[in-house]
From TrEMBL:
Organism: Aspergillus keveii
PROSITE patterns xrefs: FAD_PCMH (PS51387), OX2_COVAL_FAD (PS00862)
UniProt protein name: FAD-binding PCMH-type domain-containing protein
UniProt xrefs under InterPro entries: BBE, FAD-bd_PCMH, FAD-bd_PCMH-like_sf, FAD-bd_PCMH_sub1, FAD-bd_PCMH_sub2, FAD-linked_Oxidoreductase, Oxid_FAD_bind_N, Oxy_OxRdtase_FAD_BS
Family as reported in the entry's similarity comment: Belongs to the oxygen-dependent FAD-linked oxidoreductase family.
PANTHER family: BINDING OXIDOREDUCTASE, PUTATIVE (AFU_ORTHOLOGUE AFUA_1G17690)-RELATED, FAD-BINDING PCMH-TYPE DOMAIN-CONTAINING PROTEIN
Amino acid sequence: MQIIWRDSADPAGYEDARVGRVFNHRRPKRYPLAVVKATCVEDIIAAVKLAKEKNCRVAVRSGGHSWAAWSVRDESILIDLGNFKQWTVDAENRVAKVTPSVTGRELNGMLVDEYRLMFPGGHCPDVGLGGFLLQGGMGWNCRGWGWACERVKAIDVVTADGEALHCNQEQNQDLYWAARGSGPGFPAVVTKYHLDLIQYPKDGLRSSGYFYPLSKYHEAFNWIVNLTPGFDQDTEIVAVGLYPRDSDEIHLFILFVTLKHTANEAQAALAPAHDSRPEGTIKEWFCKEDSLADQYVSQKKANPEAHRYCVDNAYLQNDADVPKVLEEAFTKLPHRKAFALWYAMDPCSRRELPDMALSVHSDHYFALYTVWEDERDDERCQGWVKDVMKRVHPHAVGAYLGDSDFQVRQTQYWSQSSGERLRDIRKKWDPTGRICGYLDQGDVSGIRGLDNVHA
């Protein structure tokens, strides 16, 4: 077990261990007591027991992609899982067993090439499965296929006392329930996910895309919002406010990605959108050959490394006037690398969810991804996000854990009953608050957790 101690390590080595794997380069000024670079379950058990011996907390890093760098906590033992990457596949039963630091691109690169299977992991290729699934997992085609965490059949964990357990619907059911939507407040360390896989489309993915000028903003946005209910359930639908790479003007980009098994099925699924689209596109394509690998390339360009990020989000009320509520967010971006996103959630949002912690969503998911390079832009970019969210908040019902920063804004993340149940589970399995949990302002939430109130 490799341990990098704050007070005795080479400063550069400690700094790399502290934040070298943090995706957001707006780095936190929080300093763990030590970083453990785990390579096996035994290392994780030893790290938890070391924290008990030192009477300090444990933080966990899977992919390092949380915008607020939840894994970097003062006076903690940080268990970094970056070197603990393992997976096995039972192709016949479509099950994979995967460690938390494996990314969606790593897993799907292997699954698609070798087995023509896939898992609906995170869109951004560098996101580790650990935090992504704990937060619920708004993965590929969430609107039609449901939340990625619904495909978690079991988990292996190390508890706050250093005990290794297996959790599913038959044993340690409360931890299994919490693992699907509790986010960083999960009161144990996940060491392995048992995942239900999906057949990858035989002919690959197909996509249609439409770029509109802002003069067509309301017409095009209303078109896509009204088109979504009843649209093909194997098709992902997203609207993005962005600066195209070849333009100095903000555009509204509407993208359909369909995961039908044949080209003919894909064309039939995408045709109703193409036939009803408003006139006036600046650029468009219909039913173009695509792939998961190419989608990851596009997502990586939109989420570049070595940049500073400020992100926030909301589930809008089902009857909200979406184009009007989001007009400022989509049309007044503070930086040409920033973008605003609306993600269609219907019909997933209209069905009863399984019995799991994740319990708040709506027809309309909205997120701001503010991206910049220069530290001197911090105040301006963060202030813009805060101002936009202040005006969006009255039209929201809650937020998604994965694109949240509890230090800046808290709202409702679970139903009232699920929030209370989660608090009870946290107190049962981690009564002393050994696992760091939710990073709120001042890092004081402890075993109490978040207030879970949409004020």
